[in-house]
Amino acid sequence: MDRSHEEPVSIEISGCSKEDARIVFDTLSTCFESDRGADEVPQQLHETRPMVWLGTFEVTDARECPPPARLSSSVEADAQGGYWAIERLRTTLDSMFTVRDLSSASGDQERELHVRLESR
Question: What CA–CA distance (Å, rounded) separates 1 from 118?
């Protein structure tokens, strides 16, 4: 299958500390092109309200991924994208974290993936 067009996946990370959110984003940024700058650090804007961090990753070209830093707790990730892109993202996450499926939903063109990531 020809993948000459871009395959973006948008990812929402929640249910974790900003440090863990950063580990996941930094790890994915080493694997894929991203809209996040290298110096873009997740900020905790509110002490009690749950935070959600967003990033978009272009998964067409996967690079060599180093093992991620250890997460202090589990991280919830919601991803949306085309079927192929979500499959590619899932394979990459599986290679670096313990991935537990929370739910997934499929539409005509898009697929949603809701997973919990934990350090291996």
Answer: 32
| Environment class of 103 (CB within 10 Å of its CB; exposed 0-12, middle 13-18, buried 19+) | exposed
Backbone phi and psi for residue 67, each to the nearest 5 degrees, phi listed first = -60, 140
Number of H helices, E strands in the chain: 2, 6
Residue 51 confidence (pLDDT)? 78
Query: How far is Cα 21 from Cα 10, in angstroms, rounded to an integer?
Result: 14
H helices of 2-114, in order, are: 18-31, 83-96
Q: How far apart are CA 68 and CA 84, in angstroms?
A: 23
The model's pTM: 0.85
CA atoms of 26 and 36, how far apart (whole Å): 9
